[in-house]
Amino acid sequence: MKKFELNPDLTVADEQSLRGLFGATHTLAIQKCQTSLSKHAQDFISRSPFLCIGTQSLDGKADVSPRGDPVGFVKILDDKTLAIPDRPGNNRLDTFVNILANPNVGILFMVPGFDDTLRVNGRATLVTDPELLETMSVNERAPKLAIVVQVSEVFMHCAKAFRRSHLWSPDHLQDRSEMPSLVKIILDDSTGAPNDKDEMRKMDEDLEEDYKRTLY
Q1: Please, is 86 exposed, middle or buried when counting C-beta atoms within 10 Å of its C-beta (0-12, 13-18, 19+)?
Q2: Which of these, 28, 35, 51, 54, has the minimum number of CB atoms within 10 Å of its CB?
Q3: pLDDT in tens, 191-202
């Protein structure tokens, strides 16, 4: 693949140039921003089994991490405070390390079947309060910590992106078998995957067993 090179004369370098490409912001898009969780925002969060949380390191390196659990896994502590439980993962801890360096976070809540999403921005703190963590137990296992977010901005996001992508449409589901397994992709991109199909199949089976054993 030929290397792509940017033409500096065809880039947008300042906000004035950016806004010149678009029309004025809709009034409703400005008015919809709230500083606390309304009853509708709380209802949306209570229905959500999945979110993505965006963080940034002190030197500006960005990261987005998915979080998923049973419906209502995010605790609404009050109308300006949320708590997101941690669950077993790969222990890279990218999100947590970023929060320690820069507590500003952006969260996108999704509900299966809803084309609208909810965006929440705020400041995060890593919390190990046992009483709080116990309320987030699944299968009698409490998380090691929770991300507590002090909400600064809340708003609903329109359905256009989901409708363009047909994300929830059964007619647009893709066949996962058309791409290699997760283990093979990682090995191909790092140390190299084994050529032996039985060995590769065993690795895939081991991953599935690990999912079952360490989900909580």
Answers
A1: middle
A2: 28
A3: 999 999 999 999
